[in-house]
TrEMBL record:
This is Aminotransferase. One of its GO terms (molecular function) is transaminase activity. Its EC number is 2.6.1.-. Transmembrane segments: none annotated. Keywords: Aminotransferase, Transferase. Residues 74-382 form the Aminotransferase class I/classII large domain.
Length: 390
């Protein structure tokens, strides 16, 4: 076999996602398709995004498009934004600029997890955690969210930790459920991770996956575990709040509470490690644009209106749904508990949802709220007709 064992494992764990993605790419060419699958834009890009990039396009120096690592203005803008949002004293040196959250997660894995060690991941959770871990020669270990309300089950995480655990990944606001976890959860988790670190004789790190941090509803606040557990790293992607996932821009940030020795060690490791994993820096244009992009966002009130319209109509029709507190997804249980059959039947009528099989939850489905309001209104009669008991 030409492929490495880890490549085979990664491919196997992501095959169902790539097959679905290929199908949806074909769907995207149909102007009449009602696509609620991935969090892709369905309207023209934000003027704030295109304007920020256009302002930086013309070179101002001969090295404008030379190799870029972690550019200081971008780091300063991110550190200031994080300090304002989370109330912690982030410094520019705490920030590694990356190619989206993918790049930030890959960097975090390389920094703190050795080959063969275990990483605890939430289920249901983002479908790329598992293949990324396999590709890094790490072992994913699932910790189920509370099935009653999809809150973070700290006891489940505690049970998943073993002597080989090196990292725990959490995600809030959570994809696919839309839940936002409160500070009390992070305090409880910090106690568990500190105790487990002492028991097993090595530090267990926490990676807080926060790409939807700025997309929240109903005035719900946000607390990061970086304020409760010093050994926390934060990964972030601008692709969500800008609704431009094709422009790869993100960062990895160290908690300012991290002890000085470890904080300095990781700061110094950023650049050489990013080089070693394949020049893991955003391109020059995106880094120059960061200061202007810190204040750019999709229309949250309009997104709220879409959430309320879909959630209200489907809830009234009899679906069992989790009311999203953040992200741009709606998570529900399929009629008869067979999401694949449910999604396949709707696809015949031109309505495309994401089946929960992709999240290891075959009884659920996910709806992306990035579809237009017109698409939502066109799809609702059929979705209501397919409700349980209809």
């Amino acid at each position: 076999m030409a492929m490495s064992e880890r490549a085979v494992r990664a491919k196997s764990s992501v095959d169902r996602v790539t097959a679905f993605f290929s199908r949806i790419q074909a769907v995207a060419q149909d102007p009449d398709a009602m696509d609620f699958t991935f969090g892709n834009p369905h309207e023209m890009a934000l003027a704030g995004l295109t304007g920020a990039m256009a302002a930086q396009l013309a070179p101002r120096t001969v090295d404008w498009y030379a190799y870029k690592t972690n550019e200081r203005p971008a780091q300063e803008a991110v550190a200031a934004g994080l300090t304002d949002e989370l109330g912690l004293d982030f410094q520019p040196e705490d920030i590694a600029m990356t190619q989206g959250a993918f790049g930030a997660i890959a960097l975090a894995l390389t920094l703190v997890a050795d080959a063969g060690t275990e990483v605890v991941i939430p289920v249901p959770g983002w479908f790329c955690y598992e293949p990324m871990l396999h590709a890094a020669n790490l072992v994913p270990v699932a910790a189920a969210l509370d099935p009653s309300d999809f809150s973070l089950d700290v006891d489940a995480i505690a049970r998943a930790i073993s002597p080989r655990t090196r990292l725990v990944i959490v995600n809030s606001p959570s994809n696919p459920t839309g839940r936002v976890f409160p500070r009390e959860t992070w305090v409880e988790l910090a106690v568990v991770l500190e105790a487990a670190s002492r028991t097993h004789g090595h530090r267990i790190w926490l990676l807080s996956d926060e790409p939807y941090r700025r997309i929240r509803f109903d005035g719900i606040g946000f607390d990061s575990p970086a304020a409760s557990y010093p050994w926390t790293m934060i990964d972030y992607s601008y692709g969500k709040v800008l609704l431009a996932p094709g422009q790869r821009l993100g960062y990895l940030a160290l908690s300012p509470l991290l002890p000085t020795t470890e904080r300095d060690e990781l700061r110094e490791a950023f650049m050489p490690t990013q080089l070693a994993i394949g020049w893991g820096f955003p391109n020059a244009l995106m880094q120059y644009s960061v200061p202007a992009l810190e204040d750019v966002s999709i229309d949250i009130p309009e997104l709220t209106r879409k959430r309320d319209r879909l959630y209200g109509a489907l809830d009234e029709a009899g679906y069992t749904l989790t009311r999203p507190e953040g992200t741009f997804y709606l998570w529900g249980r399929a009629p008869d508990g067979d999401a694949q059959a449910f999604c396949d039947a709707l696809a015949v009528e031109g309505i495309h949802l994401m089946p929960g099989t992709i999240f290891d939850r075959p009884e659920h489905f996910r709806v992306s709220l990035t579809a237009t309001m017109d698409t939502i209104e066109r799809a609702l009669p059929r979705l209501v007709a397919a409700a349980p008991g209809r």
